[in-house]
Amino acid sequence: MKTLLLSASLLFLPLAAHAACAPTDFAIKDVKLSANGAGGTTRLVLSGELVNNCAEPAAAQINIDVKDASGKVIQSKQGWPAGTTNIAPGATARFDFGKRFRYQSDMAAYTVSVISVRAW
Question: What is the pTM assigned to this prediction?
Fold first, then answer.
């Protein structure tokens, strides 16, 4: 019985040695915010790239806060740039979440952050 437990623990030990990817293992780059059109037909573009700097394939959820000139968050949305697909180590996933936001004339700034990580 002891041999069986020892064998099982040695089998699963390499799995425990691998640390899971964390939000800090991902980078967000080349984020651009722009508005096209006028009035009620204004379309927002809020695009960028999510980079996986983790040693394992994984996906990340991002949060985007749009703020007014005083820094107050006026809209906030979350999403998975790669959907339910893992991003390979060193690879990127492009995103454009502009369609998720409703244009407001007092939009002045935004922040984008990685809030969670998952391997599908």
Answer: 0.79
Q: Work out the number of other CB atoms within 10 angstroms of the CB of residue 61.
A: 18
What sign for the dihedral angle of Cα 111, 115, 118, 120? Answer: negative
Residue reference for tokens 């107050």 = 72
CATH (residue range 20-118): 2.60.40.10
Which of 116, 119, 115, 47 lies closest to 84 in space, CA to CA?
A: 119
- 1-50 tens-digit pLDDT: 444 444 444 455 444 344 589 999 999 999 998 888 776 678 889 999 99
Partners of 35 in beta bridges: 44
Spans of all domains in the chain: 20-118
Kindly state the DSSP code that residue 27 receives in the 8-state scheme: E
Q: Is the dihedral of CA 9, 12, 16, 18 positive or negative?
A: positive
Residue 41 tokens read as 């037909």
The answer to whether the CB of 61 falls within 8 A of the CB of 50 is: no
The label of the residue with tokens 């244009």 reads: 103
